[in-house]
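Support reply, case 0932

Customer input (verbatim):
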Amino acid sequence: MILIDKTLKYWRYRIFAVTWLGYAGFYFCRKNFSVTMPILIDELGYTKNDMAIVLTVYSFTYMVGQFVNGYMSDKWGPRLIVSIGLVIAVVANFIMGMMGSLLAFVFLMGVNGLGQSSGWSGLVKNMTPWFKSNTRGVVMSWWSTCYVIGAFLATIFATYWATNESILVEWGWKRAFIIPAVLLAVITLLYATLARNRPPDVGLPVLVREEEDTIDTKLRGEQYQIIKNLVSKSELWVAAFIYFVLKLTRYVFLFWLPLYMVEALHYSSQDSGYLSSVYELIGFFGVIAAGYISDRLLNSKRFPVVTVMLFIMAIICFIQPLIADLGMLAIGINIGLIGMMTYGADSILSGATAMDIGGEKSAAMAAGIINGVGSAGQLLSPFIAAYVSEKLGWDALFYGFVILALIGSGLAASKWNFGGNLDSDAANLNSGTEHASKT
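Our regenerated output:
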């Protein structure tokens, strides 16, 4: 037993680390386009509508891929599916660094979206069998820092390679695609080599109770019944529509924040790239806080955290246009607080909540559906950002975020009491089933 515990602890750390690194790595070939957008507009003469087309194609393939890859990760295992997705992202970004035409960006960002879409659902699936539900809030809050810290480091990394004037100067903005692709190739090799799908793959016992997978246990082994039980859960669709709101908002910040700072605040491309990273840097603390509050104060309930964070986000977004002239420090603090609320709600919803709703057998599918519906919001974000900023001004975008955050907060409040310790619930269900069979 002691040997098993030590082995399990080792593998938990290993799976945590390699999946964290895998998803953080994806961002090095995602945030680079955001950083280079102002440069592409300035040097190649592209318009905001051109950039919106590129990002819409990316968002569309990412959305479709979420649904497909969630199913494939459940069926064939996340290690294979995520590894393929990483390779696709590497190849697409490397070739983008060799090209410069709008058509090439449209096509290759679409390919990149397909590769990137394997990441979240697959890696959530990879994590699920290794951790029970009563620890997932805390575990996933730390694990979800992968896309916060990953985005932060990727922004700094891409800004350096896109704007520095000392190394490979003749490559210009192309460095922001080629160098991250090389880095992601190394991360791909590490993940494919070190990851394993489930504890039994390394001789360890099954850790997660099957009762978490579905309330109806009689037909659990049949795939159609698992899917039917999953999609019949109202919590899945509430979480998905909240994530639609969150992803629409987050992806405007993710891709358009540097351009907002260049156009509305008149900062340089370099200053905008570095300052925009504060959104992810402070977002880190929201991710950690969300998990601890959920597990330690709310008995592993997730929706109350989302409710409060989105309500606070609405207030902060309302403040942003009012402080635009107060300088970089004020802007940095406010953007950081928006990031804290956005990422906190985002991480608990797309991570622990998806795992709780789906269980081990349907975790990737639940994460894929939630992320897929959310990606429909992501799909709309480029044209909303381009149109509103062009016709109504950048301030109008922030007032739009206020409305979206309040809608999301209201939806989350409707499921305030969902959740709790699912392992305890599963144990009680199992106990009740055994009692019924004996009588």
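We compared this against your earlier run and they match. Two observations from our side: The chain has one domain: 11-198+236-438. The first helix runs from residue 2 to 28. Please reopen the case if you see a mismatch on your end.
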